[in-house]
Design goal:
Distance between the termini of chain A: 51 Å
Oligomer: homodimer
Number of helices of chain A: 9
């Protein structure tokens, strides 16, 4: 594996997927090169910010020409570790769980959901987009046999910490939490909260301050 | 309406809902007061950061006692504008759209989804969690008659900008975009991207750098 910088800022990590979508769109055109300024214009941000973000991935642009499109896409994908496939399991096959399982886009980002789990007996054995639903007590064995590294939590808040502990105890190294509950994990586990309420907070607060 | 500060930082806005969930949990206990240190311990962050975040909402704590629980919850809710109800419409009744419509939690945050829209004729007239699905061409009238201010976009990337333009043209002031596409809006419209891929990027990149 290529040597990676130790860390990137959260805002940079959040902007990189946006650039990537834009660059992938450009692949269907005749453009072979792209400048940081053009990317910056697309998103209404400063070119210097784009240059900083892109250089974080290790790529170096050419003066007056910019970046080779294919190389830039490869550089961002590698930096985000989206070029390799990571096996994941998802716990909680409610509305949000089903939506995530049905979102084919995640496969482009290297997220391969190999199994789903739920406590609802009527769901066990069913398949959602080719992914089978298993009872929770089979989780440890299935995580190990599939070498799954990511656990997606889409259960109600009250059971989130319990499920998190089961996942980590089974060897999961990254938790992607959608439950509206603060979770505790050991230092060797990465926890990322994808709580929609946080995004809603940014929207509603900005709407108020804009009108005051 | 209480005079609000002009703006808060995005990280602060993202932490406030987490504090709120924690504080609401405490309401079912006997605790009447809470210190910034205790909140900080719950989330493994620095107390000074929590104090800064809370003071942004306009509340002042008492030395050695901390914050009155009820007043603190009220202060955060008011700051995020979650104490008042805002009518919203959602466009795109696929898996993610249905999940969002079914997530009752948003009502606690003042998001009241009054109507859904989809181009799929088989969905028109159906109700999902008491919210009816209408054809897109009825959107402008329904937005106006309900005084809806927020538009939630859960359509595929290819139609996201078109739907965004329809929403803004109908008077929508805040766009909550779940489509993986950069959208353009006028300066007087607030755009918040809730792209799940951004959150996934933070997780997968951190997992790599942790193990390198």
């Amino acid at each position: 594996m290529k040597k990676l910088p130790k860390s990137a800022s959260i805002p940079t990590l959040r902007r990189l997927p946006k650039y990537l979508h834009f660059l992938q769109k450009l692949q269907s055109t005749d453009e072979k090169f792209i400048s940081a300024t053009k990317i910056a214009n697309e998103f209404g941000i400063e070119p210097i910010l784009v240059r900083k973000d892109l250089s974080t991935t290790g790529i170096v642009g050419k003066p007056k020409i910019g970046f080779e499109l294919e190389r830039l896409i490869k550089s961002i994908n590698e930096f985000l570790n989206w070029h390799s496939v990571q096996n994941a399991v998802i716990v909680g096959v409610g509305g949000l769980g089903k939506a995530i399982m049905g979102y084919v886009g995640f496969q482009d980002y290297g997220l391969n959901i190999v199994a789903a789990f739920d406590s609802d007996k009527t769901l066990i054995g069913k398949k959602i987009k080719d992914v089978q639903v298993f009872p929770i007590n089979e989780l440890p064995e299935i995580v190990k046999s599939n070498e799954a590294t990511i656990g997606v939590i889409t259960v109600p808040a009250t059971s989130a910490q319990f499920i998190c502990d089961v996942l980590v105890g089974s060897g999961i190294k990254g938790i992607w939490n959608f439950a509206p509950r603060a979770l505790k994990v050991n230092n060797d586990v990465i926890l990322e909260n994808a709580q929609l309420s946080q995004s809603l907070a940014v929207l509603t607060h900005k709407m108020v301050t804009k009108n005051s």
